Amino acid sequence: MAELLQPVVRYGQIARMWVRASRAYPVSWAMLVVGGFLINIIEFVGIWILFQNVDDLGGFTLRQVAFLYGGTGVAFALADLVAGRAERLGQMIRLGKLDQMMVRPVPLLVQVCADEFALRRVSRVAQAAVVLAWGCGAVDWTAPRLLLTVLMVASATVIFVAVFVALACVQFWTIDAAEVANAFTYGGVTVTAYPLSIFPGELVKALTFVVPLAFVNWYPSLYVLGEPDPLGYPGWTQWLSPAVAVLFTAVAAVVWRAGVRSYRSTGS
Amino acid sequence: MSLHVAVATRSFRRYSTYTAATLAGIFTNCVFGVINALVLVAVWEQNPDAGGYDVRDAVTYVWLGQAMIMVIALWGGGSPTDLATRIKTGDVALDFYRPVGLLGWYLAADLGRAAFHLLSRALVPTVVGALLFDLRWPGGPWPAVAVAVSVVLALLVSFAIRFLVAMTTFWVLDDQGTAILASTAAVFFSGLTVPLVLFPGWFGTLARALPWASYVQAPADLWLGKHHGWGVVGTLGLQALWAGVLLGACAGLLRLAERKVVVQGG
């Protein structure tokens, strides 16, 4: 057990160090925290403005959209807090930082994810949580719905962590194509903030079977909000998110291992 | 003058080196173009003349927004980022020694960068958008000229704001905080995700008077032919006014900063 917890402890130690370092520029740090809050607020204000022009989107009210937005938002912000730094992998390779990390007695992935850990990102979690809490008012609560909501946020967090790590690995092969990852990470959180019923069926199928980001919040939310599935899939698909999270984790682990194995340093 | 041209061309070449990064960025622009266009299609299906646009205007607007992001460095970045780094390390003291104005030097570098991004990150996504959706095009040579002027003015406004943000490093010693606040304002008030024409009442009027309206809303409205005659002049005039005021502020603040660096001994 102690051995299993070791990476978590190490992560905590590195994270604490960076939190202390960030206090060196207090004014800037305060603005970063406020900025983190604002970025999420304006995203949701944008959706609110859309609703000033329509009564519902894809059959969903503003409050129901808040549930979708908050669910994916909290998970994404948590994943970004824990593993968002992985997107700097290319920079770590270029600067030779990754080579230094490889000789240290701490798991490489822990070091990559904890590098320049920024506690200020908690403000984005908080902001999304407020929207989610407001969106929860749209739910007619029962015990299974509560359970599924918790499972949904936990699974979605794992899914986004896996997406961050797997796509960062692209940089093992092409150092400057880091931005491809944004299409899936930020693109993923943007697309799942809306009811998927507004998108063409082919896109929803692609998000179910090809890049199964629909399991981040869409299918479980259909159950929690008591809405019918426009594609008419069986009810158990709405409980699949934890399994999909396991699948994502497995893929990320395989890709990470392959990436590390093929890494040959920059040679300089 | 020839010096500034040389700076601009080298900056153009600097950015053109990273082919993989450019392709990756184009891919991301296209993904967001598709997502945002489909969201707005859903809005306009329910309210076919929201904000005085039709669905074709709205979809075109989304792709123009994606095209503008990198040209004007909407999220921040470009040559002012180099300045911020040089202030942080103290190298900026050397820049002050040089017999070239800082503002002109960095502006030239940013123009070179923007030219490259116009040919890559603006042109290619627009073509992709046109293949996937039914887009509207400028209705003749004069509207096209107005769009071109508007894009240049947008770049000047955005450069001035990014330069001001970078200069805050002189006082705060780290520009990350001001940068995130500036990009938040830019994303929201440029109308990148939600067109400013959808903003309700006085809030919409305010948003359209702020400098960020130059980024996406102003060139898009000219592209879509929403202004005629004096309306075109007014739109370009407001952009020019903001460009002038903000570049003036840059020059003024730079003088203050220079004195501060000299007093501190670099």
UniProtKB/TrEMBL annotation, chain B:
The keyword Transmembrane applies. Pfam families: ABC2_membrane_6 (PF06182). InterPro entries: ABC-2_transporter-like. Coiled coil: none annotated. Keywords: Membrane, Transmembrane, Transmembrane helix. The chain crosses the membrane at residues 20-43, 58-78, 145-173, 180-203, 230-254. This is ABC transporter permease. It comes from Nocardioides anomalus.
